[in-house]
Fold this sequence. Notes:
The complex is a heterodimer.
Chain A: H1 4-22, H2 25-29, E1 36-44, E2 49-54, E3 60-66, E4 70-76, E5 81-86, E6 92-96, E7 105-108, E8 114-121, E9 127-134, E10 139-146, E11 152-158, E12 164-169, E13 175-180, E14 202-207, E15 213-217, E16 226-233, E17 239-245, E18 256-259, E19 266-267, H3 272-276, E20 284-288, E21 293-298, E22 303-308, E23 314-319, E24 323-329, E25 332-337, E26 341-343, E27 349-351, E28 355-357, E29 362-365
Antiparallel strand pairs in A: 1-2, 1-28, 1-29, 2-3, 4-5, 5-6, 6-7, 8-9, 9-10, 10-11, 12-13, 13-14, 14-15, 16-17, 17-18, 18-19, 20-21, 21-22, 22-23, 24-25, 25-26, 26-27
Chain B: E1 12-13, H1 26-61, H2 65-85, H3 98-102, H4 111-122, H5 130-133, H6 143-151, H7 163-188, H8 193-198, H9 210-233, H10 257-275, H11 286-304, H12 310-315, H13 317-344, E2 349-350
Antiparallel strand pairs in B: 1-2
Helix pairs in contact in B: 1-2, 1-7, 1-9, 1-10, 2-6, 2-10, 6-7, 9-10, 9-13, 10-11, 11-13
Protein name (chain A): DUF1513 domain-containing protein
Signal peptide (chain A): 1-29
Pfam families (chain A): DUF1513
Amino acid sequence: xxxxxxxxxxxxxxxxxxxxxxxxxxxxxxxxxxxxxxxxxxxxxxxxxxxxxxxxxxxxxxxxxxxxxxxxxxxxxxxxxxxxxxxxxxxxxxxxxxxxxxxxxxxxxxxxxxxxxxxxxxxxxxxxxxxxxxxxxxxxxxxxxxxxxxxxxxxxxxxxxxxxxxxxxxxxxxxxxxxxxxxxxxxxxxxxxxxxxxxxxxxxxxxxxxxxxxxxxxxxxxxxxxxxxxxxxxxxxxxxxxxxxxxxxxxxxxxxxxxxxxxxxxxxxxxxxxxxxxxxxxxxxxxxxxxxxxxxxxxxxxxxxxxxxxxxxxxxxxxxxxxxxxxxxxxxxxxxxxxxxxxxxxxxxxxxxxxxxxxxxxxxxx
Amino acid sequence: xxxxxxxxxxxxxxxxxxxxxxxxxxxxxxxxxxxxxxxxxxxxxxxxxxxxxxxxxxxxxxxxxxxxxxxxxxxxxxxxxxxxxxxxxxxxxxxxxxxxxxxxxxxxxxxxxxxxxxxxxxxxxxxxxxxxxxxxxxxxxxxxxxxxxxxxxxxxxxxxxxxxxxxxxxxxxxxxxxxxxxxxxxxxxxxxxxxxxxxxxxxxxxxxxxxxxxxxxxxxxxxxxxxxxxxxxxxxxxxxxxxxxxxxxxxxxxxxxxxxxxxxxxxxxxxxxxxxxxxxxxxxxxxxxxxxxxxxxxxxxxxxxxxxxxxxxxxxxxxxxxxxxxxxxxxxxxxxxxxxxxxxxxxxxxxxxxxxx
Lengths: 366, 357
């Protein structure tokens, strides 16, 4: 039998070479050399859900069962605990310690809120911030949880938008960047999108300590169906975001952009061949700050692209079935797929027999 | 939070080659789907909106009990034909907010109801002109708004003397007819969307290969079943009777809740049969198609014996049970389409690709 896996390895080797050729010498020299593990939510082939910690070789080091589908994982380097959030409109998050020294702890969202799948710790690890839906009022919220008190919910503030998705803590340790996807949903109606004709996504900067809105950015009105959903921040502090277009497939808007405080959002022009392959859908965004690159994936387009942060130029494109999870790995990125593959930056691929990987992959420095 | 006690299976069909299977040639399958299901279904819908347009304008000229009854029954026929073709959620219907303008639902905050009532109360002249109406809120120009006009509080006045309400209703009907005509034309055009769907290539901006073409068709079932279960049924059927919300059901005012559920399913069944997906399966996998046919029939039979206004259906434990059962059957169908059938066709049911995350 023909083995597509081998073909893909060969392909990736080739693509990797092209990748280095496209980068400046300084950028290609910088690689992540420290040991790392990777965290991701998964579904087992038997239908059950969980979160896993994987070694660099793709070995399963630790797993935590989940009652339903998870989404993203966030990690606190101070306590060395991770939190995996339920996929929207899920109502749980599970705190776990992959060294196995502490029992997992389940956080329940309040009855009138649900999680959107993303969260972030404060730099001291004391507080956990999560994007949440005040669904009866169709208002996005950030829930605040006290990590030192069994993750008790101690407050919340609005995201000044509808349907917040990913959030990031910026380098100052205080400013949150939040992607308000703009899509209204309500748990009564599953994942149905209730406001596509009037949706208005935004990217906001909020002071996590006061909850005050610092800046709110929108795309031009003609792009009001371009849902801003995933982000990462590069070494210069620029926020890179990826979008999902809710308008007709015949429209091909730009899908990746940059946000900087004090400036309008800027959408990145991309070659048509790359952009067209994304099927109007970016599923995750990851930065390799050491290498100076950003990767954006499209599980619907079965591909991901690597962009040089300084120039905004696409330096590589990889075809990979149902790729979504991305994390920095050595000089480029590690990718995981909805078919169970883990493809390391060097191109070596591992096919999990029992697992398929969820949308996001987090690199944890060992 | 209310949830149906059934598996919330949701898959998006993906266009990726999988080991040891071969994607069948989508060409003849898509040709049959377009020529023998999609085009006729949009033609039927357009014919229904044309009749609706005609009867509502007659009603406004000569209000009578008889014409009001005719307008109401034509509305129900329009819902029936719409429900069959509503499952096609790609292509021309996605342009210019047509899908939402035909039917804005769920309208959780009753935006449409408030806007329609306000227009009637203030006799807003821009709502009785189809040209200006089409530029107004999507919630006041489609089937939901027209249902309130024809079946809502004070709708009996249409039989005698309600000129504003009637001309608002007629404008909605004309607007629907215009949208239906545009979608029909866009599908009929020889060099239009259908051609693009049937001719994948690296330079085709919509479909690059055979897998993406077939994936679009399979997505109709995968998305349609999830909508039926989680949104349409799940929107009003509680875990327990006391958690039911009959007024959150689509078309509760006109008693068309169950027919619209059945319309979606019978549309899917017809599309499955007509497109000949079953023939594309190898002999030892024909059971998948048989199971699909069997489950569609189970669901349709259950709905056929759960007829009546939705409040009555929910109050009758046997009928209510048939709705719960229909939800369970759609989960089974989701598995058959999203996992079994798509795997046989070398398409993965994208786990990491579900929409909106």
